[in-house]
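hi! just following up on the protien thing from before. the input was this:
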Amino acid sequence: MAGIRRLITVTRDGMHNAFTDLIYWHDMYIVSYRKGAGHISGDGQAMVAISSDRERFTEVARVKVNGDTRDPKLVPMADGRLAMLVASWTEGVARRKLQQFVCFSDDACNWTSPQPVCDPDQWLWRVRLHEGRYYGLQYGAMPGRTFQRDEPERQHQLMISDDMLNWQSVSRVGPTDRIIGESDIAFQEDGEAWIVVRSNAGSGNAFFACARPPYTEWEVSELDGKINAPVILRHQNRHYVAGRARLSDMRMPDYAQPGQRTTGVWQLEKGRVTPVLNLPAAGDCSYCGFIEDPEGRICLSYYSQHAYIFGVEPFAYRMNPTSEDKPHGDILSKADIYFAELELP
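and the predicted 3d structure came back as:
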């Protein structure tokens, strides 16, 4: 039976805290996230918070490069160090000039200066260590074109590296007009790679792709559900994926309006997902970290605005407020980070 054992607030400070990742490393639970004035803003910076008891998290580091620094991803390295990937809109959020960076730490508190990696306008999302090498999916504009939200010609590439600094393309994955966003990759015991990737085209449902070594020929199918910023966890020989969902996809009543957002967990099988758990989340939300710790606890980090939508702030919230209804201040500029312990079937 799926359920939430415990849920705590990691960060609530009136800022827009979002886009999390989570690892267990050197006896610490480490959450990374972006902090800024809004969902997209030039003051965005990557934050690192740590805890030893899963009750109290302390912000211990921040990483900032020119522009809107965002979407930090943590990667435990084979040599014992910790890497963090961040992306930045380096020429301001309006121009959409993207650059990926990586920095390193021996203690999660002190980080090296971020170094640019990969080509401009290419977003290397989540990276996994497999058999001593680092794999991740990169997406962005086709060569010679600018990365834009309305850009129909995008590419997804499986990338590989030996040091997190120098990356090479292994293969293209999926149709460029439908597979266009965040992703995660999981390797099976027999070496087969599974990928779940966001799509905003058509139904908006996510896609599943799989390939055997050397990962050059991919089978692609559409999943039955919208999964933004997917993250995959293997637990007791089963796979689960967490991400932003439509409330209706989680077999919950869509009581507010069509497409109401939440944070969901699905059981993942080859080419198929089944919803198993809906977390307290609403508005601008999700972008999870998802781990099993050495004691077998299933832990998940995410962000959400549900506390502001449903009661923390001293004013009512309406899904489509008129100018007269809007409260003083910008409610959409506030989001909090959460840490949950889950029970999964």
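The helical segments are 306-310.
Residues 3-343 form a domain with the Neuraminidase fold (CATH 2.120.10.10).
cheers
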